[in-house]
Amino acid sequence: MQDKIICLPKRVQPSQNQSSVSNVSQAVASTTPLPPPKPSPSNPVTVEMKGLKTDLDLQQYSFINQMCYERALHWYAKYFPYLVLIHTLVFMLCSNFWFKFPGSSSKIEHFISILGKCFDSPWTTRALSEVSGEDSEEKDNRKNNMSRSNTTQSGPEGSLVNSQSLKSIPEKFVVDKSTAGALDKKEGEQAKALFEKVKKFRLHVEEGDILYAMYVRQTVLKVIKFLIIIAYNSALVSKVQFTVDCNVDIQDMTGYKNFSCNHTMAHLFSKLSFCYLCFVSIYGLTCLYTLYWLFYRSLKEYSFEYVRQETGIDDIPDVKNDFAFMLHMIDQYDPLYSKRFAVFLSEVSENKLKQLNLNNEWTPDKLRQKLQTNAHNRLELPLIMLSGLPDTVFEITELQSLKLEIIKNVMIPATIAQLDNLQELSLHQCSVKIHSAALSFLKENLKVLSVKFDDMRELPPWMYGLRNLEELYLVGSLSHDISRNVTLESLRDLKSLKILSIKSNVSKIPQAVVDVSSHLQKMCIHNDGTKLVMLNNLKKMTNLTELELVHCDLERIPHAVFSLLSLQELDLKENNLKSIEEIVSFQHLRKLTVLKLWHNSITYIPEHIKKLTSLERLSFSHNKIEVLPSHLFLCNKIRYLDLSYNDIRFIPPEIGVLQSLQYFSITCNKVESLPDELYFCKKLKTLKIGKNSLSVLSPKIGNLLFLSYLDVKGNHFEILPPELGDCRALKRAGLVVEDALFETLPSDVREQMKTE
């Protein structure tokens, strides 16, 4: 629409005063050379308005219109449409700037995207459906608690923290249980990705409050703008007039000075200004309410208390800063969005989803494919580096041993009671929680427990109550104070414990171990090189039959060992033994049958060893022995003798006395010849003579009819005796020899060995 003003000369009425006469005279003069009009006696005197005649009528009145528009018309009447446009643009800019500014728009767009996906996710429906299926009594109790908490809240702040619109959620939200339970693998993966997105988004958005600050500032600006508009428009709306008087000094051209102008848009502008004030007032009141909403309570904190009470998901965290502000904003639209979004803030909900995905991935059939037999001859299921423990594990009822390795937040449910055959449990670097019913089951059925840990807090406190536990294996670093005072203090309650193994860095045998000494039969301490001192507590373990002290930096055989009259096996591997003169005291241990002194620094074997007549297995491998005493072979019950990795040059002929010998190893020594008496040990099954300086293998080796394993590799043999064919139990797989040397055997012997 075009804004116009139309001006006409203004007629001036004559008056009696001098000023009026003067004006008439000027008007008469301006109309010359025309004669003045003759007054009529019956009419009052009037002046006819006639200007100068020119050929520029159109141009001169266009000029007059423009001059009067600029000079006589009030600025408000002239610029009213532009003011409305400018104010509207300012309001639009204030309202939409945060949607365009990169620092805020990216957060809003990301939030809306995640919110929509969370709202539509099948996992949300399933998680809430589990809540809707709770026991009615539990839900009634929760509602009573809610009502009590609502009545105790006083003041407007309490009612705003738990938004009243949230109370309509149960009425709006209806779960179709027939579809809530179905969640396929793809949907599970999508929900898992949503959890990660929400977690990262929360971490990023909760750091700042740019959205809140920007929204407050733009609202304050709009309120100030509203007040300014109302103030000046109310004052100036009366200035919009339909008729305007205008004086333009243009008599020389037109013959007139006074003009009366008509503002063609004045009537419309006047009505529009009142409408504009009404609309701005409504908008301004909305801004005032928004400002009241912003400052009436803190919008930088958002509590999910009502959602926690309503859904029973107790670990939904409260949020702050921009994250809280956006949730308050979405509540103004529909609080159901916040409720469904809250599901993805809960770790409990996330763990349930992980569990569901885990169950979908590890079906019972897939788990059965991983079953294997372990060292204890039990059917074992090893699970390594999973996100949790699949519930499908408890459907494999034939399972005897469960091994969990590097699995965080393991929860053993009551359904473990379905595993009637379960006897062994291994926890390697796992943090484990257990249901009370599951603990009761383990107390009655678990026989073997193995725990490997990096941090002592990974030691399950419930393991001390396993009253039927027979074997306990602990692997991990223990500080001295903790190992003495805390970690093993409660072992006295393990009344059935028979085997205890500790692989750690203990410097003393814990007192708690002594507390179970009355029924302990085997104890193993594998240190990391830490010196083990004060072994007097060993004397109290009168029923101990097996003892292993490995890598404990022992320089002598502990005297306390000689008091263990029931001891049958002793292993002192990887210590710092150099002299074993105390070995004579072993003669009092009538039941000792196995002695392992391997991986030490022993230089000789004392003659007193002959008094250990009950020995059946003896290992001196990886020492520095140079000479074998003939008295060694007076221990005529020896069936296993390992002398490998020493500096032995000569084997005494008395070895033939060992008629029970089945295993003999002198690998990696400096032996140049073997005595013929060795072949009198006709029960020999394993003979290891590799990596020596032997040049001839006696034909008498054919006397060893039970020989099934022979290692001769790494010597100076040029030919193998054909009598090896008499060793019917010896096959090619059991003969360790160079291929070229094997070819020196007769073809029939080679064929015999190759046949299975």
Automatic annotation (TrEMBL):
Region: Disordered, residue numbers: 12-43, 130-162
An annotated GO cellular component: endoplasmic reticulum membrane
Mode of membrane association: Multi-pass membrane protein
Signal peptide extent: none
Extent of Low complexity compositional bias: 12-32
Residue ranges, compositional bias (Pro residues): 33-42
GO BP, sorted A to Z: monoatomic ion transmembrane transport
Family, per entry: Belongs to the LRRC8 family.
Subunit (UniProt): Heterohexamer; oligomerizes with other LRRC8 proteins (LRRC8A, LRRC8B, LRRC8D and/or LRRC8E) to form a heterohexamer. Homoheptamer; inactive, likely because it is not targeted to the plasma membrane in the absence of LRRC8A. In vivo, the subunit composition may depend primarily on expression levels, and heterooligomeric channels containing various proportions of the different LRRC8 proteins may coexist.
Name of the protein described by the UniProt record: Volume-regulated anion channel subunit LRRC8C
Source species: Bos taurus
